[in-house]
Predict the 3D structure of the following.
Amino acid sequence: MSATGFLSQLLQLVVALLLAPLLLGWVNQCRAWLQNKRAPSLLLPYWTIRKLFHKDAVVADNASGLFRVTPYVVFAAMALAAAIVPSLATDLGTAFGSIGARREMFVGFLAEPALLMVLFTASLISGATLLPTIVETLAHRDIAIYPSLAFAGVAFTMVSLAENARIPVDNPATHLELTMIHEAMILEYSARHLALIEWASALKLFNYSCIGLALFLPFGIAKGSSDWGAILVAVPVLIGKLAVGGFALALIETLFAKMRIFRAPEFLGTAFLLAVLAMLVNLLLGS
Amino acid sequence: MSAVPFWAQLINLFAAVLLLLAFAMLAQRRVLTLIDLFAAQGFALACSTAIVAYATRQPHLFWSAGLTLVLKVILLPWLLHRLIRQLDVRWDVEGLINIPTTMLIGIVLVVFAFNLALPIAQLASTVTRATLGIAMASVMLSFLMMITRRKAIPQVIGFLSMENGLFFAATSATYGMPMVVELGIALDVLVAMLILGVFFFQIREQFDSLDLKHLEKLKEHE
């Protein structure tokens, strides 16, 4: 890879790291507006992370080294845009962490096939399996109606909601023991460990939104990684799209109620069904 | 891809919507929503028929699109709503199999229908022949719905939606049937609906319920 290519990759990483909490703050703000509450500051996630970094970490006595290492691993994995590993919350042996981790694995396990089908559909339409190539093909095709792409888009949205612990599946604002999934898993973390995990989940949301936007609304995206002019145009466009996407997410979270955990398989089953239908319709109609 | 004209894309879109609605009906627990979904399916069918009529310059298809609109979007849902009001049955539908399993069976059926339709579609000479697979799939999904539902009204909706699938198959394979046949079928469906409505009252008077498992017993006291 050339030096400029490397630099632009680095820039992309830094932009993602810096913008991820902002996206979270924006979603929270929109949701507060929609629910007639006074909105917290847009920068609140940054302050939270800063505050947490300055606190002393409290770790349970019987935690092993794994417990300490996990936040760094999760954060590094997310920073590398990899999928989150249901973290080692079962390590402490307390009930909450264990419940959260199991539920998260359960949801992640069910979301996986649907996500795969969505990506297959996108590959089928563009005839490639590399994500950049797919996006490039989709961005430069003629304008046409793709029912399969619409189905896949809805399926992807449902999977992202489940994977990012957002409202129909999990409520990011609750600490009620019966309903929390993701929050239960990170309940035992404090200070810098918690900061890293919070940042990592903000990054996860950011990554999912970016992938979704790149796949299903691929206009104004930078071609290749060494064209600085295109990147300068692409960043504001991306921010604009993320702002709209964040508002849509807040709207979904306001309009829907969290469902019972045993309904989650049905929700993700529907996502899977939509993704499979997208693939089948694409194979049959070629559109 | 630009070779596909815009109206063909629209027909494909409506075909996909039809299939989606068939699945939605399969998964729906509430009777009232089921009727709304049925009306939506009729609307998608009418739209796609009208587009085929416009694209292929077949004036009689406009008539069948209009007939579909009046019959399946307005009249039949209204009749069903009235029936439900009179019978006072707003229960949640109970399926014989749970919903995720039904959906998985549905996916298998769709794959089967697509494979089955592929050689047949190659024989047809219409521009819309690719959607034949979707029509077959909706017929089969309606079949599945009739099989998996226990109560009478969802079964009737399944029957009506099967007719939607057949109509769509006729449009996509041969640009629709002759007007006389279409009128006959429309009348048939309407009459069937009225007679079934009378049946509902009879069944309920006999068994105090619309659960069809009571009809499986041959003797009165066992």
Observations:
- The CA atoms of residues 96 and 241 of chain A lie 37 Å apart.
